[in-house]
Protein 1
Amino acid sequence: MLKQERNGLMAMVASALLFAVTTTLVRIASNSLSGLFVSTIRFAVGGAAAIAWLRLSGRGFRVVNKKDWLLRGLYGSVSMTCTYMAIAWTSGGRSTMLSNTYPIFVALFGSLFFGSKLLPTAIPALALCTVGSVVILNDGAGYSLLGDGLALVAAMLAGMAVNHLKRARTTEDPVSLYLSACLFGLPVAAALAVGSGGLPARLTLVPILLSVLLGLVVFAAQILMTWAYKYVSAARGSRIFYLETVFAVGFGALIGERLKPAFFLGAAIIMGALWLDGAAQDRKAAKAAAQ
């Protein structure tokens, strides 16, 4: 294994852990603030951190692939907003598991819109992910179906965002790519928060500080993930992010979240489906490298 690939894998694991931490922070903050308001703060902090990073590093702001930079930001920001709303309306473990079906949509949309070849395992994997999601949606836990549905919408949008991210990553800096999502996400989340009455009647210090901390942790997680995708295949990277669900469920247990046995059955079906498709992609990559 090349040193850069090994470092990329380590960065992926660290990113998965940080994303699980953010899920828990969103869940705690959303007890006092709406998911849309939390998302607004997160985009504002992330955008400020990205601009400060670019200025302090002396790199400046430069975009070569404007189309993919813009579309990565558009799809990614709406996906992130849906994820935050889903976390606020359901449990961290459920929302993370359902939103992490995105690798199937990466493969599907890659074939439909980006010229990638759809492997034979993709269709049965998508079918199994659907079965697993239905099991989770109907596990009798009493969580909001709307929240679960938003997590699945987030997965579909993330499928488009990752394809644009992978294509843009050949020319664009990871921080500039993340800034795209923040620039799109901030006005969208803010407008939705105002329009839906999601602004808090009274600001309290602890939830605001948690939301600011959330923005900084997400910034670190996103930069690690974007940097790593230059050296790690989408298939291998997506399987590493299975750990995010494990971490999120563990952290959720610490704050009192409880999951029914049916959730774990559905999660096992989804993870098996993603492993099936990811293993096929790895075999394809190995075969191409040997030629």
Protein 2
Amino acid sequence: MTKMTFTAHPMLLGFEQLERMVEQATKSGNDGYPPFNIEQTGESAYRITLAVAGFSQDDLSITVEANKLLVRGRQAPDDTARVFLHQGIARRQFQKSFVLADGVEVVGATVENGLLHIDLKRIEPEKVVQNVEIRKG
């Protein structure tokens, strides 16, 4: 029995990339750390908020490449000799990735009260009507 995908439908031409994006999204960091929210802040605006308690602005990096938003957090090792009676605040590094649709761009990021806010906006392409000339064969 062969695997049937939605891109195998004859009326869906050129959607192979969509299937790869869905596959990539299911593989990206399901561990739940750090916790995050995704909210719609306007008709074509979104915000991703990650809880990054203990991370400074210098400990965080955000990159976008090929429709993939990658957020990394890495803290310098704590060399002080401290004795914890309980250590519930994670100091581990993390990498969280999000797949962005075509036309979605990162417009800014801020760190505030232990939360990293990443603002996104969907840029609508200009609608173009194309007339195709039919030639005699």
Protein 3
Amino acid sequence: MKNRKEKKAKSFKFIALLVLLIVCVFGGTSVFFAMNGKIKIGNKNNQQNNNEVVNTQPEENTDEIVENIEDETQKGDTKINVLVMGTDKVGLHSDVDFVVSFDTETKKMSLLSIPRDTKVVMTDEMIQSLLDRDREQFIPNAKGVRGQCKLTEVYAYAGDGYRDQFVKMAIEDLLGIEIDHYVTVDLQGFKNIVDAFGGVDMVVQERLYYSDPAQDLYIDLYPGYQHLDGDKAEQLVRYRDGYIQKDIKRIQVQQDFLSEFLKKVTSTDNIIKNLPEIITTAIKYTKTDISITDAIKYSKYISDIDMENVTMETIPGEGGSYYTPDMEAVKEIVDRIFYDIIPESETAQEETGELSEVSDSKNLNIEVANGTMTNGMAGKKRDMLEKEGYTVSGISTYKGQKQEATRIVVKEEGQGNDLVKYFVNANVEVDSELVGDGCDIKIIVGYSEN
């Protein structure tokens, strides 16, 4: 009897974490509890209302499911990819879009964000779906390109019952990957879940103020370490107009919030106590094709959540009226995250043994220089790197021209590559003279980090 109770407790804890992370727009860790299965465009059985949780499987006995967990890794595919979408207040745009990939073999998880204004082109299948439903007037045509629009607009053009699938297909086409499942959540659900877990304590980096009565959006946050309840958390993750990098900076802040929130969630003892509110919130504000039944099958992965094995990145590109992806750089990131393909240059270095001696920058002295006009950037990055185990020998103000992208300046070819993931669109360059004698690596922080 005791074993059965223990199993139930573990099951309920898992369900609570799953629902929590689904409801949170930034809850990527729930994604690896998915099962194979696709929703096809035009399948009326899968046209769900915005406030429904999709559950295509009949309910089963929870204990039996836990006792008979299948090992998906034996099927040969160790990657599970899930698209997470956060909708605006009226539910017509996907303002937050990212794909989370969990490797059931290595236990590593990667989150790849796609900015809301990313330029995408609808596939022929998507356009045909609109034509079949007499929605020809909703086929965008930007600059003479049929089907071209911003990623956030795809959700609106798709129409009821097709919104999630359209965004999923657009991102699959953009990245060249297969997405197993989707999760969609609205703002109210996000706020309620943050409140259910007592909020999050973190540093707000700068003064954030914005007022838009038309959207009923009021943002008023001061810099410093503070407690964020659901309302303040929403303000933090929605702010973007005052940033030089607009949505790119907002994504970085969202990822910072996600990191702090997951640390609290995965270590809290209050999950069971908050379970009723979490479940209620999920049902009301979340839409997904991951059923609770399917999720329980993979409850064994809950013990594998480790923030040390989580990386968060944004597809590289250039901003403007559209965010235009750098497809060559995007391919490198996609190859690495989703296909475990290492660039040939790195592979050659590994084979010759050159990379092994210099690939770990934690053994080197790093100087961080502020190449922006924003005070405190060097100190902020120093704290972040030291937290990750790197040695920062000092910080300074870069005396040269202010930088757009962060430069990781090294003395020898092959150094600094492990630092790239901590910055936005950072480049590694070899210039021993610029590095100087006082350190091994000099990081010049650019405006892209703002």
Protein 4
Amino acid sequence: MNPLLHIENLSVHAGGKALVSDISFAVAPGERLGLIGESGSGKSLTALATIGLLADGLKVSGSVLLNGRQVVGARDRDLVPLRGATAAVVFQEPLTALDPLMKIGRQVGQAVRRRAKRDGRPTDATSVMSEVLDLLDQVALPQPQRIAESWPHEISGGQRQRAAIAMALACKPKLLIADEPTTALDVTTQAEILRLLGQLVRERNMALLFISHDLPVVAGTVDRVIVLRHGRVVEQGPVSTVFREPSHDYTRSLVAAARAFDNALENAP
């Protein structure tokens, strides 16, 4: 089976400085892969390079094949058909990812309408709103009609993130890229969002590229993991193997820190 995403020797430079160096990996249809590392390790840059959304001024080399299409060097208008239909992104901070001047239902509705148009399905207001409410229900938002009629600032952070997930699902992607999707949320809401993502990925048989610095979160979400440090891959393999028997000093330090934190919580008064 051909990989859905195939990255080979990906490098990203800014002003002569290497931000990402010679990264190579593949994601098969339905596979769940994690990218972990500290801030500045190149996780988000790698994800943005996947769909051709890197900022102007960054120099990219190597190969990124998304559903068989070359992303590196492609014109932005040629990548539009891949965004959403092939890969969709859930970003870290939903308050900035959502348009503050547009109600939730309209924002999700735009994604629904674009996908419906591609599929040749009805795009009238009634059909679109029906699908919007169904999507809001699928991501376990209470009172979908109320949420649809709300502005982003009128709902909680967890509800905004669920709305952002609904927008991504509206595109019916083959690959869902989740870039630190729980960082801005409290611990209880984080757990709810992670359970929701896992359930939706399984039910829809989507591939998942999950980006995080939180090892316990990654361990419970993905099948395989890649560890990045200073823009380079230092270790990769099945998540259980990498976390149980890390071979690189950096990975060992991450695992030790996570275990120490867990122990501190368990022994807290």
